[in-house]
Amino acid sequence: MRAFQRALKRTKIGVWYTEGFHPHLYLNFALPLSLGYESLCECVDFRLLEDIPFEELAARVGAALPAGFGVVSAGAPVMKVSEIHRADYEIAFSCPGHGEEEARAAWKGCFDRPEIPVLKKTKRGERVVDLRPEIEISALSYEDGRFRFRARLAAGCNETVNPALLFDAFSEFSGLPADDISVTRTAVYRENGEIFR
Prior knowledge:
Elements: H1 2-11, E1 28-29, E2 38-39, E3 44-45, H2 54-64, E4 84-94, H3 100-111, E5 117-122, E6 125-130, E7 135-137, E8 141-143, E9 146-154, H4 164-174, E10 179-190
Helix pairs in contact: 1-2, 3-4
């Protein structure tokens, strides 16, 4: 959020600020990431106060962003945030102190169950949810001491599954630790499978 706010200020492009005693630049990220996650597919909305070609807008904002950030494209809003239904992730982790076969068997045992209960904490309190209908997970691969897999998880207004819940379920079921976790979101979808934009 701060990186985009600062980048837009650097561009000197006329953008809309909230009204009131402390006006601030209005930005809306469609599906905010958890701290420490990476993404290849973020969508952010903001309102312009001047006409500027979208190609120029993308180039100017991209040039003002810090290293590691980039703008793929700019355009008028096409879809509503309420249409977000699923998201894809590439995830890697290690299981220190445990061999590949032991960890692989524990993972399979956890996620092959017909129900995968896990405690989910929200602003409205805690509740137990069943992850089974909300997740699709590819088979584990193993290289350089880390497991890797892809997951398609529920996302959006109705239900959102944070990838961290997968590891909560795994550790609860198996008693094995998951460490050195990295998560990269690679795509966001509408209910009909269309890429969100």
